[in-house]
Specification:
137 residues; alpha+beta; seven-stranded antiparallel beta sheet; 44% strand; globular
Length: 137
């Protein structure tokens, strides 16, 4: 059975600022751990904009599906038309000047032992990086 874990963080920033930063694939290299090595390059259209992302394991395709009304930011990534996804959600905390960002890490198919735990650890670091970036702007 594949596992998943949802992590979250509160960040002192506006919803609009957080939305514009997180939902833009060109910012991934600024806050991801062991994923985007450099700024992703736009490379066509597929369900919106398709990007090429240079990762430590090679180049992959990526596109993002968003729903502003619901706060959903879903990342789709893969090769050769086969995509996995990571779902996330951004919520404004009314009257607080804060947002809460939720990210769900799923265990990849045929994951080697320990990989899921490493990915969850990476997400924890990424959330802290996001907080640092968005609170400093």
């Amino acid at each position: 059975m594949m596992r998943s874990e949802t992590l979250s963080i509160k960040i002192e920033t506006s919803f609009e600022r957080a939305w514009n930063f997180i939902s833009n694939p060109e910012n991934l290299h600024l806050w991801t751990v062991d994923f985007a090595i450099e700024k992703p390059e736009k490379n066509g259209d597929l369900y919106g904009d398709l990007y090429k992302v240079k990762t430590p394991r090679g180049v992959i395709d990526l596109f993002v599906k968003t729903n502003l009304e619901e706060g959903n930011i879903d990342f789709y990534f893969g090769r050769g038309g086969n995509y996995a996804s990571s779902s996330s959600r951004l919520l404004a905390i009314p009257g607080s000047g804060e947002i809460e960002y939720y990210f769900t890490q799923s265990e990849p198919k045929n994951a080697s032992p320990g990989l899921f735990e490493k990915l969850v650890s990476n997400v924890k670091k990424e959330l802290e990086i996001l907080k640092g970036i968005l609170e400093s702007r």
